[in-house]
Design goal:
Low-confidence stretches of chain A: none
Helix content of chain A: 25-40%
Radius of gyration of chain A: 20 Å
Number of domains of chain A: 2
CATH superfamily of the largest domain in chain A: Medium-chain alcohol dehydrogenases, catalytic domain
CATH topology of the largest domain in chain A: Quinone Oxidoreductase, Chain A, domain 1
Largest sheet of chain A: 7 strands, mixed
Mean pLDDT of chain A: 93
Oligomer: homodimer
Distance between the termini of chain A: 32 Å
CATH architecture of the largest domain in chain A: Alpha-Beta Complex
Shape of chain A: globular
Structural class of chain A: alpha/beta
Strand content of chain A: 15-25%
Chain lengths: 355, 355
């Protein structure tokens, strides 16, 4: 991690577009050698478009998956292109009637670069008033909200009184899932990677959170919930998924949102060998694909903002500065080095304008 | 396989109860050394009970799973007890008003023995008129009907025009699933273990059936259904499940009814490493547990009898004679040696009486 601070960041209004471009497909974790920070072309604004100065880049596990060739839900990032990823910036110029300078804007998946031009009519482009809480937007709304909410409601079929298990509960998605499950009337058990994370997870609504590095998870889960879990919200895969498959209640739902433990593996990762327990427990394992919920995202967002106002939705961010730190900050997701939502701030917020 | 014929079978009305009892827990496939054919006690008939002379024993993969210690949906068969299993026999005596001698009766899970006493009020005991087709009952109704029907309808959410893939399609459950899927308006692709089985599967409703021993399944499935399958009806697990997980259509349902390829494995079998494709395809994997459908079994049975009358439900049986052949006939399910429903006939049908 390079030790940059806000003071090292370029002036936000300088029209120069630095980009982190992909040079080679990563083998395992993304390495700094796989990318290059270059002075890219400044994008040109056309009719119906908006020009955005990116301020915050959000680090999501999915970013890693987009770097591999394969059958993902989006095409692989091309060699030479800026790494794809979500973020928030300020609209600096607009040639679209719905947008005005000073608004916060996500710009679809703007990627790891300073400046982006987006089509105002692109359904993935959402703008917000200048006073919008862009950090909550990054940390909760734009990354975890739909996954946690629809994962629990639509796929998890959550009911009051359900017993829910959440892995990576101190992570950005897990921590939102813990709180959403609690807010929806369930009791929650978390699994996280450090005592600090566990205590935080307990402070935001888990009845108990187990440290996967120090606790005998199999024994403790059985002890805490002898009848098993109605929902297992999985974003780690691997051994913990296998273990959870042995602790299902009758009729349980296993919601698979990803497998952090596998994103960097080459070849075929091992599958969950206890999947046959789905038969014994009349259970199902359901894959959550955010793209299927695009039309309904606002429903999840509204609930999250409501919960935020009611002080029932806490969050943490792990913020580093400068495009040079994107790779390390992405990798933190997989090593568990970060606490809360990992993000990179690439310039000072230029404020609401005028510019 | 011992070469016994119907002529070698004991007189059905002799009151002597031979049993195949478990002597040791099998390591891998059940071996003849793990069991012993003994002269067991003749069961005594009490009030409200019926005495059944077993005629046909049906071989189901689940029988093997009941021999292991573990967390199954039924307790493990005890050492010294008759091996548990389904079958059909004639009621020879009745002390329950709903049953009369001459009726066919399943007697719950009577196990591998000549004579059984059952409680007339036991909900798992079903009797049928003397002229009932006991072999169709064994081959389709009592073994595959509920699994195929509810697996496709309730769990598979089958719709007209769906594309369905069935593995072990020449087996007893698979062949019923192929026909049920076709009868419910889907197009069906089968996978089976020999050319003979494949041709039969095609004759009963699959558009095409692939020989897993000679065909490049990955390539052929992609070629036959480029858009993937809406339903995969799995009763083999292992490599074929993994392969099918790569050929799912958006929103697909993978119905897991068992894993013949794993029943005889000790330790943790490998899980399906392509399970993460459930995310990309917004798909789910659902475990079928027959016990959950007991109250609704008649719904499946009625459909099967209707289809039988309409000549839209064919079946095959692989019949051997004598309790001495139970072990080999059970193992045939796992080696693929049988074609159609494996059963053992242990005496001549004593007919409808009077006895």
């Amino acid at each position: 991690m390079t030790d940059l601070t806000l003071a090292d960041m370029p002036d936000p209004l300088t029209r120069a577009n630095r980009q982190v471009v992909l040079r080679s497909r990563p083998d395992g974790m993304l390495k700094n050698d796989d990318v290059e920070v270059v002075d890219g072309p400044m994008p040109e604004l056309g009719d119906g478009q908006i020009l955005i100065r990116m301020v915050y880049l959000q680090m999501d596990a999915a970013v890693r998956s987009w770097l591999d060739e394969g059958e993902g839900y989006l095409p692989a990032v091309e060699i030479g292109a800026a790494v794809r990823g979500g973020g928030m910036g300020r609209i600096i110029e607009s040639r679209h009637p719905d947008y005005t300078p000073g608004m916060w804007c996500g710009g679809g998946l703007p990627g790891w670069q300073d400046w982006v031009v987006a089509d105002g009519d692109d359904p993935f482009v959402n703008a917000f008033p200048p006073e919008h809480d862009a950090v909550f937007q990054i940390a909760v709304i734009a990354s975890a909200a739909a996954t946690a909410y629809f994962g629990l409601t639509d796929l998890g079929e959550i009911k009051e009184g359900d017993s829910v298990l959440v892995s990576a509960a101190g992570g950005s998605t897990g921590s939102v899932a813990v709180q959403a499950a609690r807010n929806l009337g369930a009791t929650v058990v978390g699994i996280a990677g450090s005592d600090d994370k566990c205590r935080w997870v307990e402070s935001i609504g888990a009845e108990v959170c187990l440290n996967r590095r120090t606790e005998d998870l199999a024994a403790r889960l059985k002890e805490i919930r002898p009848k098993g879990f109605d929902i297992y919200f999985d974003n780690v895969g691997g051994d913990i998924l296998d273990l959870a498959l042995r602790r299902l209640a009758i009729g349980a739902r296993v919601v698979i949102i990803g497998a952090i433990s596998m994103y960097n593996d080459k070849g075929r990762p091992p599958g969950p060998s206890n999947y046959l327990n789905l038969i014994n427990k009349q259970a199902k394992m359901v894959g959550f694909q955010g793209m299927a919920y695009v039309q309904r995202y606002p429903e999840a967002w509204e609930r999250m903002w409501d919960w935020r106002r009611e002080e029932k939705m806490d969050f943490k961010v792990d913020r580093k500065f400068g495009l040079e730190n994107c790779v390390d900050q992405l990798n933190a997701l997989f090593t568990g080095a970060n606490t809360g939502k990992a993000m990179v701030q690439i310039c000072d917020d230029p404020g609401p304008g005028p510019y």
